[in-house]
Amino acid sequence: MKINGVEIRDSFAEAFPMAGTRLIITADTPRWARTAATSMTGFATSVIGCGCEAAIERELAPSETPDGRPGISVLIFAMSLKDLKKIVPLRVGQCVLTSPTSACYAGLQGGPAIPIGRALRYFGDGHQVSKKIEDQRIWRVPVMEGEFVCDEISGSVTSAVGGGNFLILARDRPAALAAAEAAVDAMAQVEGAVLPFPGGVVRSGSKVGSKYAGLIASSNDAYCPTLRGLVPSALPPEVGSVMEIVIDGLGEAEVAASMRAGIAAVCELGADAGVVAVDAGNYGGNLGPFHFKLRALMAPAGLAKETLEGGQA
Amino acid sequence: MSGYRLKLRAPLDARLDLTGITPAALAGLSSDAVARKDVFLGAQRVALGELFEVSSGASDALVVSGDPRLDGVGADLGAGEILVEGPVGADAGARMTGGRLVVRGDAGDGLAAGLVAGRIEVAGDAGAGLGSALPGERLGMRGGVVQVGGNAGLRLAERLRGGLVLVAGDAGAGAATDLIAGTVAIAGRLGPDAGRGMRRGSLLLAQAPASLAPGFADTGSHDLVALLLMARRVPELAALFGGGVSGRAQRFAGNRLVGGEGEILLLQ
Question: By the CB < 8 Å criterion, does A131 face chain B?
Fold first, then answer.
């Protein structure tokens, strides 16, 4: 399959079940809402080293937030509910509670409860105030700047999906980077899915295992352009650089929608912009229960383009 | 199923206790069976049908004529709706665990006493001890919402343990006495001696109180995000204060004489 001259390889992304939640962070100004959200989702690229994966989902207008101030929604994922319950209060406590003018609210209702104020209220040292509105309890914790307000809990899902991905194979590094940026911009429009790596892009995709004992992942040598000829390479001769985009979502549909938006954006740049092919990372299909087949994902768009291009595929 | 309509045959000449006459208690009964239900008129046991004309109503709600001697209306209500076309006497909505009680008139003393959950709306004034504890109980109302269109009497929210009380008019003396937790909002004037023995909870005011019970510390004026949040999550609270709150309030904390950390917030 080719779309706009870009080969869609017959491959699939293999993804895993995760537990996830959405938090809404607000502040007096958009700058400080973003600061708190950026800090809270920092060092959260991969569960392997960070214990969780998190990123900003989107900006919220004041009219969309619980307290009518500018806000940011973030998604945060962990390998288990137990991990999520541990990591959320830690991160909110260190990065949102501390951030000027911030407040933190549940972005999901229902599902297992993830503690926010339930854990952080003790910072008030007895002066914390709780208020129950309908079935929702909030906490007000006195801090030097005023009060930190948060919901007691957030809802969560255990049917989240982590590790959706695709690889952009391009002629050279500028082309790979430009295509990755276009993909990230397009994927930012999809709600319920985030890209946890820096700026949404991974330049160091990994394979499982290593020649070194104890290292569970190492450089994906089959896609390293400088190793062509040394190892069995997955790269055609014209490919000089590869970027990966990793997607976590609150459900399978969100990940699929995000991947589709990203790949479509890459293909729109097309072969003329130096994009050679789109591939995906998997482990043979035996490890993760979710398989996102690239050609199936892109089928409707792909077929239309192929017809236009007179059967270039 | 459609609900029943109870129309008083004549104004009551003694206090009538309507406790337990709820939509659920009447569900599935014929109108004859409803008319045969016993209620206490003073110390006498009389059939409901002797005092009321019983007919089928247009909605699922139980509709009752109002009378200032009609006590215990909606007491123990767990679900469904009771609509009173006029005033009610004492203990309306006491111990309610759910449902909705609407009174198109005034309510007597002990409105919402021991309320657990549900919604009470009174168009007129309410008597003393709104949301307070039932006789012999330690805790007052502990959940639910009470909206009063007029004034509230003495000792509003005494020993309140939770929930939300909204008063569009004035509150009498001794409001929030021994208040334990929960939220009370008063759009009108606050009577003297409010907050004696207050432990926790919030008293929201639109007008500066002439005086408070001794024992409150003025913590100054603050921009409170919690007020912005509450105004959005509880639209009727925002409506009570004219459609919105700025978030800025003068905060009095107390009552320090009992080691309390409740607050009286004067909205600005």
Answer: yes
